[in-house]
Amino acid sequence: MDIKNRYPDAEVLAQRGHWDRATRRVVLDRVQNVPPYRNFNAQQTKTLEALCARVIPQDQRLPEKRVPIGPWIDARLKQKAPEGFRFEDLPAPDIAWEQGLDGLDQTAASSFGRNFADLTPSRQDQVLELIRGGNPPGKVWQELPA
Questions:
Q1: In whole angstroms, how far apart are CA 70 and each of 18, 19, 137?
Q2: What SS3 class is residue 13?
Q3: Are 104 and 116 in contact (CB under 8 A)?
Q4: Closest by Cα among 139, 138, 117, 7 to 53
Q5: Nearest CA to 140 among 103, 114, 104, 105?
Q6: pLDDT tens digit string along 69-93?
Q7: For 30-66, how does the pLDDT look when each residue is reduced to its tens digit (9 = 90+)?
């Protein structure tokens, strides 16, 4: 069975009558009140959206049914809420995300002459593999561990 179509008729929000009041309030607030981008610049926002689409694909969903992931990452970083941990060789999360998104664009430009968001999905995957390999092209990666 194709995992993307495992539960084609599932509607999580249809179950909200079974949730307690606190759960219903939190979930519906997150669904209905998606925060605006405030932390990332326009290019970083575009790159983040493309990254989220590759890491957590939602192509099987109608556009209006897709879960907005990027705005919640942005909101969490804007709050500067502590993560509870941080790798010793990384900067603060907001800086690491900004540099990482810039690094995605630098690797994409070096490899394919375009920003990450402007590449085809298969080329985006190639960029992600280059970064995962640990030695990608791009100035950012000289300071930020890939």
A1: 28, 26, 25
A2: helix
A3: yes
A4: 117
A5: 103
A6: 999 999 988 887 677 777 788 888 8
A7: 777 889 999 999 999 999 999 999 999 988 888 887 8
